[in-house]
UniProtKB/TrEMBL annotation:
This is Holliday junction branch migration complex subunit RuvA. It is found in: Cytoplasm. InterPro entries: DNA_helicase_Holl-junc_RuvA_I, Hlx-hairpin-Hlx_DNA-bd_motif, NA-bd_OB-fold, RuvA, RuvA_2-like, RuvA_C, RuvA_C_sf. GO terms for biological process: DNA recombination; DNA repair. It comes from the Bacteria. It comes from Sagittula salina.
Length: 230
């Protein structure tokens, strides 16, 4: 399975990019946001990828971060939400916007994506809301390496295909407890739009009630404390 590729852009189409990796061309489908952010032909690029395997089809989808790749995989797990709809949501909201909408239960934001109806949007939020804190924690303090891809340290032309498609699921596992978990949770809540005061209060209370929690656990607990009452 193909989990990450790095090489040189050959050309960009309306919904995909062709990447040359040591003489082999990979057609990678991406969101409008990702395509707009990529360079021109001849420039280096590195993307995390997810390979969709069907009886009559093989399609490779590319993402700049593990968080975006993981959201794609999770969105695909929702009944009635396929690859096209998942890309539409990420194209409309980006990884951060998707995290924010799902964590806050804002199905109207999901519905704004092209081709997503209200029932599908509500299903996405209901099925994935509990998973949002873990995915959000994946992106905190992620190192940035070659071609702007977190976690990459080697030059793109030296990389080729190096990771299994299951890597994001492993990366999404709860991180080890860290002294910086409260600061990371506070940062995540700030990204969701909470005021510093209310976010700090919720994180402090969550940490006091469960000091052993990791970043994802603190985010989850703080969101419960911040949820409207009644």
């Amino acid at each position: 399975m193909i989990g990450r590729i790095a090489g040189v852009i050959v050309y960009k189409g309306d919904d995909h990019v062709l990447i040359d990796v040591r003489g082999v061309g990979y057609m990678v489908y991406c969101t409008d946001r990702v395509l707009a952010a990529l360079g021109r032909g001849g420039e280096a690029v590195a993307l995390y990828t997810d390979l969709l395997v069907r009886e009559d089809l093989l399609q490779l989808f590319g993402f700049p971060t593990l968080v975006e790749k993981e959201w794609f995989r999770l969105l695909m797990s929702v009944q009635g939400v396929g690859a096209k709809a998942s890309l539409a949501i990420l194209s409309a909201l980006g990884a951060d916007g998707t995290s924010r909408a799902i964590a806050l239960g804002d199905w109207n934001a999901i519905k704004a994506a092209k081709g997503i109806g209200p029932k599908s949007a509500q299903r996405v939020v209901n099925e994935l809301k509990d998973k949002a804190p873990t995915v959000m924690a994946m992106g905190i303090n992620a190192p940035v390496g070659a071609a702007g891809v977190p976690g990459s340290t080697a030059a793109p032309e030296d990389d080729a295909v190096i990771e299994a498609a299951g890597a994001p699921a492993q990366a999404a596992a709860a991180p080890s407890p860290s002294p910086s978990a409260q600061a990371e949770a506070l940062s995540a809540l700030g990204n969701l739009g909470y005021a510093p005061g209310e976010a700090a209060g919720a994180v402090a209370q969550a940490a006091g009630e469960a000091p052993e929690e990791d970043t994802a656990g603190l985010i989850r607990a703080a969101l419960r404390l911040l949820a409207p009452k009644g």
